[in-house]
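Hey, resending since the last one bounced:
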Amino acid sequence: MKTTRLFLTLAVMMGFTVCKSQSINTIVNDATNVVNGTTPLSNEDISNGLKEALKVGTNNSVASSSKVDGFYKNPKIKIPFPKEAESMESTLKNMGMSAQCTKFVETLNRGAEEAAKSAAPIFVDAITKLTISDGMKILKGSDNAATQYLQTNTTPQLKVTFLPIVKAALQKVNLTNYWKPLVTA
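The structure tokens again:
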């Protein structure tokens, strides 16, 4: 837990010192002093630092996931064959259609990669609305407190925004051209 706090404190301090010309050693020393309780940060400093750290993390995540193979070759976020159709996938593979099943999953993930390009503004908006109280809850909360905050504050907007984007992206990558032969078989 102390390592997590040090990491978060580093992120906070780097966030609000981006415009300053401090060395990383100075930032690490300052962060260590904050974690040890010898140098306090104001609630506003914590909130602003978390906002900046979350913005940087969001932009990096979106950039990574929206590039080719961002979803497809990342086992943590890859979209597999639909769970409801796993028995169909098994049957199709037994019929010699493994390549078509693989192409379907690849195409599905290409659609997700295309749609991911629109995620950053939604996350940045939620981060911008982060209150000092929210920042303190994230800093003092569990290891996934930031994820929980973003999930709560972005899911409805992501659903509304992504539905037409996902539909268009799936049309763009011709997903139905890969799904129809599988269903027919």
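The longest helix spans residues 145-172.

Sorry for the duplicate.
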